[in-house]
Design goal:
Blueprint (H helix, E strand, L loop, with lengths): L6 E4 L11 H15 L65 E5 L5 E3 L9 E3 L2 E2 L23 H5 E5 L2 H9 L9 E3 L10 H4 L1 H11 L4 E5 L8 H9 L3 E6 L5 H7 L6 H13 L4 E8 L8 H10 L4 E6 L7 H11 L4 H11 L17 H18 L20
Parallel strand pairs: 1-2, 2-6, 4-7, 7-8, 8-9, 9-10, 10-11
Antiparallel strand pairs: 3-4, 5-6
Helix pairs in contact: 3-5, 5-6, 7-10, 9-12
């Protein structure tokens, strides 16, 4: 059975990154209820719901027809934790409705984001989308959806925002005289190759902008759609520089399906590594997130499988569960592995200084204490054995001198 057709909602331009007014929240909630209402038999769902002044043209569904893997419980119901930035909280009387897909289109004022955190190994990033259909239960980016007056739960997975002018904005930003040609990371706060990319093609067009600007890039993804762009990525690798890293935390397909319900299966991600490596694209693996009793014992197998598939680099990251994320992770973990759910949470607290989350700069992506040092030692030992090295971003290409024409 295919996914329900998306309702598309146009956002006012520009969309602020700070909490919005109660009036706007009520308006967005009303529009969402319109987009998720039941569709009578024999009729198609609405193709667009727009505010006055914005009339996006109808688009085809970003999801091709055919079967899609679903979470064991079927289509997820609407469920979001309270949003601290919103003045209103919606509770459903009775059973919540299904969390149907709604796509919001916005005209972004800027798409090039500057990172000042020492936790992340890149300075500049581009996120063509907000939210992610993959629905990973542990995703640290979920709370960022709350700044849009949306939820960190089902909203993050089904109420997705598309920056329809991302390639044009990126071209202008790279053409600035002060731009120094530093590597740009795709994406950091979402997966740039989630299924929406099949319809919008924003990631590919942004990569074409980088190639025209002779600007190096790095990509981290779980998505299979990156294979579509193998030839383009190979040209970037041969020119300004490019590396694609595939995120792979599990080899156990059942565990992956429960915790990453709409992401490609582990075997498919390994095939993505093979496909890109065969095309001449430098590839690596990111073993993250990792937690004791969850997947630390799988590290040797993941590294060996990734190396066999063509990976040249490997990196490691520790699980962290912000308060908005922890309940969903607990729920899905208990459903697939009830016998070790408590041990996983205890182990995570052990490597997080008694907490499940970590918000201190420089500490968010790595654990601490003797237990985490054992995990790091295991990772480094097998990286040395397999010849996997730490990833390094491509070097900058120097200041721009008007080489990019719009």
């Amino acid at each position: 059975m295919g996914l329900p057709g998306p309702a598309r909602v146009a956002l006012p331009n520009p969309r602020p990154s700070s909490p919005l007014s109660p009036f706007y929240f009520l308006l967005s909630t009303f529009s969402f209820l319109l987009s998720t209402r039941a569709t009578p038999a024999g009729r198609s769902p609405p193709s667009a719901v727009s505010w006055p002044g914005r009339s996006p043209g109808p688009r085809e569904s970003p999801f091709p027809s055919g079967r899609r893997r679903r979470h064991a419980g079927g289509m997820r119901s609407v469920a979001n934790p309270p949003n601290p930035w919103a003045s209103t909280y919606v509770e459903w009387l009775g059973e919540p409705p299904p969390a149907r897909l709604a796509v919001y289109e916005e005209e972004a004022r800027s798409v090039l984001s500057r990172n000042e955190s020492p936790d992340i190994p890149f300075r500049w990033s581009v996120n063509p989308y907000r939210g992610c259909f993959h629905g990973c239960s542990y995703c640290y980016a979920r709370p960022s959806h709350q700044y849009l007056d949306l939820g960190a739960g089902s909203d993050f997975e089904r109420r997705l925002v598309v920056k329809v002018n991302a390639p044009e904005r990126l071209a202008r930003e790279l053409a600035r005289p002060g731009w120094r040609g530093e590597a740009i990371h795709f994406s950091g706060n979402t997966d740039c190759y989630q299924p929406l990319e099949a319809s919008y093609g924003l990631t590919r067009r942004c990569l074409e902008v980088c190639l025209a600007a002779d600007n190096p890039v790095t990509v981290v993804t779980k998505g299979q759609l990156v294979r579509r762009d193998a030839e383009l990525l190979a040209r970037l690798a041969a020119g300004p520089g490019c590396r694609v890293v595939v995120s792979l935390a599990f080899l156990d397909a059942e565990l992956s399906r429960a915790l990453e319900p709409y992401a490609p299966a582990p075997a498919q991600r390994l095939e993505t590594l093979r496909h890109l490596a065969a095309a001449g694209v430098p590839v690596g693996v990111m073993v993250a997130p990792v937690a004791p009793h969850l997947n630390d014992a799988a590290i040797p197998g993941i590294l060996a499988a990734a190396r066999e598939a063509g990976a040249e680099t490997a990196s490691l990251g520790c699980l962290r569960l912000p308060p908005e994320v922890a309940p969903l992770f607990r729920e899905r973990l208990a459903a697939v592995a009830p016998e070790r759910a408590a041990a996983v949470l205890r182990g995570l607290a052990e490597v997080r200084g008694g907490r499940l989350d970590e918000r201190r700069f420089g500490r968010r992506m790595a654990g601490e204490g003797p237990r985490w040092r054992l995990v790091e030692d295991l990772f480094r030992l097998h990286c040395r054995r397999l010849g996997l090295r730490p990833p390094e971003p491509p070097p900058p290409r120097g200041p721009r001198q008007g080489r990019l024409a719009l």
